[in-house]
């Protein structure tokens, strides 16, 4: 038998059986046998072998090229070289088809192109079935399929990441004032969720416009629809929460609730529904599940409408108060609501006097009757001025009424002190020094 030999310097490869070494020479027939063994590899195991196959076939090719020149014209050499070259040519295609991005749908495309059937899920399918299938005739088409599969895998992984993230993302709930149970969404967390929603929707819109999105089109569109609905629900939810938190202290106690009994009753019903949906939402917590709750989606528009009605009634009420006491225009609605809700307790309004009057920081009550204001005081740094009212003011009735009375008494008292000061100006210089005169009367 004619035996050609290949020079192999460092062979560390073994598959089922080792090559036989002898002074770094190995028989041609052994190379052929090795390649036959490769073709017997099960296709399901092929991905793990690809790096080794690539390394060894290149090694065989190099050794083949280094054979003596006189052997290169022989049929045995040409047969061996063709066997090696053919394997080198098809190996990259096999490597592409063995990647994890290749799914059954891609094999169907390959089958349609080649006109052959490949049952790749069959554990008995071997590498030789593919090497003998004439895949090289359709190389460009198969490469396009594999390239598309890689891009589809990227899309699928990003889509799966988004789906997984929104299954885990949750709201943070907080208590409100004296209520020790979940009543409100934590604002900072809501802002983070809304930002994440925008980012996810942008990513999904980008995917939806890609040419390779077809296998996941329905999933992408469904996720886009879900996140869009979630975003709309959160917007409605936060709007209702803003209204509820602003109206809750007004209609659950204080003087305003007593003066607006119809609105207070309406708010009580809204408050009951609000605490119900917040309690159920806190039990669920996850964003998507919360926002897809039918009770929440049905109640939010109703609650928003009811709260807006209460808000409009309250604004009309405040406008009426401002008309009666125009100095209320100097303060914002929240401050005015605070003043009005505490109107029956003048002492609780102390810190708000300077917002209504330029020169009244606080008032002084009669020691025996805490319902009587006897003095007004202005403070500037460490200095203060006190004016005794010309007549004590009784704190009773609506707050705008006794504040109007305070304004009148302030003006009368200042005019009185100005009149006294005018009479004493004739004494300045002869009986009274200018400094004593200035110290005796208020700066005005």
From TrEMBL:
A Pfam family hit: DHC_N2
Single GO MF descriptor: dynein light intermediate chain binding
Organism domain of life: Eukaryota
Localization, UniProt: Cytoplasm, Cytoskeleton
UniProt-listed GO biological process terms: microtubule-based movement
InterPro entries noted in UniProt: DHC (IPR026983), Dynein_2_N (IPR042222), Dynein_heavy_linker (IPR013602), Dynein_linker_3 (IPR042228)
Cellular component GO terms held in the UniProt record: dynein complex; microtubule
Record keywords, A-Z: ATP-binding, Cell projection, Cilium, Coiled coil, Cytoplasm, Cytoskeleton, Dynein, Flagellum, Microtubule, Motor protein, Nucleotide-binding, Repeat
Segments forming domain Dynein heavy chain linker: 22-419
Predominant location: cytoplasm
Record family assignment: Belongs to the dynein heavy chain family.
Name of the protein described by the UniProt record: Putative dynein gamma chain, flagellar outer arm
